[in-house]
Structure to design on (483 residues):
């Protein structure tokens, strides 16, 4: 994925990797370190929490926990790559695009996800995909990362298996 | 209509330590929004908030208004003078009329203790107490807690002394409730005439001498001496008050260690606090003001919206 991102951008110039809270942030950090290994360039990295931009805030029950947003770089004219763990309805990405627009006007925004599980509700697609899985609407995909969950794993929970 | 804090924020006394910690934790990410070029998130888009201020206020009113606007709410300010209140309309009639215009939240500042509770019991909208009489000023208490936590990284075990006119201070009461619930040790220091009779029942230590308070405390929260107290006979003179209870650089230096200085404002320089203390290296008085906006954004966020009956329906459309 790191290679594809660099390829997509024609190099690492003006590249900025932004992870979506929470798992996307760890994945973004790994992509940044892989690019550093291969290209010997440390690409700037940011974090985005899209909770305050959700389109269902007026309806969800208890208020979701808000995590930190950290975009310490000027994003005007940059090539921003949004990184998230799972792409499903596309609503998170819609919120992330809106939030990025409040920080500036990037030259281009691309999307990289570890898992594309289908089920889009908005006209959004990923530019870089780790793996495509066909998951039924009731099913769940959990991406685990060592930093938060103690191990790296992608777990598919089928609807009939409960939870 | 009830979120993690319930319908209203009337004081810190009814909250649990967990609820207070939730507000402080939620305030953290909101700090960043005020540092952006575009200081606005769409979270409360479409919500209407009325700021009902029956008492003079600059800091609190402006802070609430910024918090509301940075969350994209629509706001209206009503002051007692120039409104129907000056024609003798009762509090509840004013609020009911506002509510008939389909508002979502009311922020109220009122001279009578219990005014916020009175209103909350009678209207559907969320009510936030922005100071009621000598009862509570919860968002001030919360921003004081946040400022202390920013500096010391914890509240548990912290020694905080509240200095001055504790008797008339809603800020003192909210501080005492909030700090004790978070595990801090609280003391008060001031002339006995300005300390409430049953203050020791709130679990606080009493210092009669400011030197003793300075010797004990990690932080001082210095209250404004309301000048009208002098004519009411609580203290002999402002000069004497400054000499006996004023926080000066000399007194702080004698402690031989750093003591954090808080003040809810507006300050009477040269009375309860000397200028070189207010502007000194250990003063976090302006950090308090900055934190005020973040804390109020957190409170508005946590109280707003969240209709559980729609939560189920939202789950199906609210995925990634």
């Amino acid at each position: 994925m790191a290679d594809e991102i660099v390829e997509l951008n024609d190099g690492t110039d003006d590249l900025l990797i932004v992870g979506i809270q929470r798992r996307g942030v760890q994945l973004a950090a790994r992509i940044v370190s892989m690019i550093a290994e291969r290209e010997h360039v440390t690409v700037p990295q940011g974090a985005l929490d899209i909770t305050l931009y959700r389109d269902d805030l007026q309806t969800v029950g208890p208020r979701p926990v808000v995590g930190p947003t950290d975009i310490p770089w000027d994003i005007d004219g940059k090539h921003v790559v949004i990184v998230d763990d799972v792409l499903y309805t596309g609503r998170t990405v819609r919120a992330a695009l809106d939030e990025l627009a409040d920080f500036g006007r990037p030259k281009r925004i691309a999307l990289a996800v570890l898992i594309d599980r289908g089920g889009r509700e908005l006209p959004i697609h990923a530019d870089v995909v780790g793996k495509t899985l066909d998951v039924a609407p009731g099913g769940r995909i959990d991406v685990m990362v060592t930093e938060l969950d103690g191990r790296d794993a992608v777990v598919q929970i089928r609807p009939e298996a409960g939870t | 209509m009830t979120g993690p804090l319930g319908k209203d924020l009337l004081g810190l006394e009814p909250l649990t330590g967990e609820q207070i910690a939730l507000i402080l934790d939620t305030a953290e990410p909101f700090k960043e929004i005020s540092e952006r070029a575009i200081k606005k998130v769409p979270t409360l888009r479409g919500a209407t908030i009325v700021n009902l201020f029956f008492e003079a206020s600059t800091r609190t009113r402006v802070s609430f208004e910024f918090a509301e606007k940075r969350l994209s709410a629509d706001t209206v300010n009503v002051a007692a003078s120039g409104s129907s209140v000056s024609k003798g309309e009762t509090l509840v009639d004013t609020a009911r009329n506002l509510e008939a215009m389909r508002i979502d939240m009311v922020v109220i500042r009122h001279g009578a203790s219990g005014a916020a509770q009175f209103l909350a019991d009678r209207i559907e909208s969320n009510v936030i107490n922005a100071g009621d009489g000598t009862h509570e000023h919860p968002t001030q208490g919360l921003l004081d807690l946040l400022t202390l936590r920013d500096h010391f990284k914890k509240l548990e075990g912290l020694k905080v002394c509240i200095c001055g006119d504790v008797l008339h201070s809603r800020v003192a009461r909210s501080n005492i409730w909030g700090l004790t619930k978070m595990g801090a040790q609280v003391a008060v220091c001031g002339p006995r005439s300005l300390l409430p009779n049953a203050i020791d029942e709130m679990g606080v230590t009493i210092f009669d001498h400011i030197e003793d308070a300075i010797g004990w405390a990690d932080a001082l929260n210095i209250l404004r001496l309301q000048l009208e107290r002098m004519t009411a006979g609580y203290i002999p003179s402002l000069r004497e008050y400054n000499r006996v209870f004023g926080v000066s650089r000399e007194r702080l230096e004698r402690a031989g260690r750093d003591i954090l200085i808080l003040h809810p404002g507006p300050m009477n320089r040269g009375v309860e606090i000397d200028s070189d203390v207010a502007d000194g290296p250990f003063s976090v008085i302006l950090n308090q003001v900055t934190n005020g906006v973040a804390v109020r954004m957190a409170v508005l966020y946590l109280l707003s919206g969240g209709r559980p009956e729609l939560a189920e329906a939202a789950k199906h459309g609210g995925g990634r």
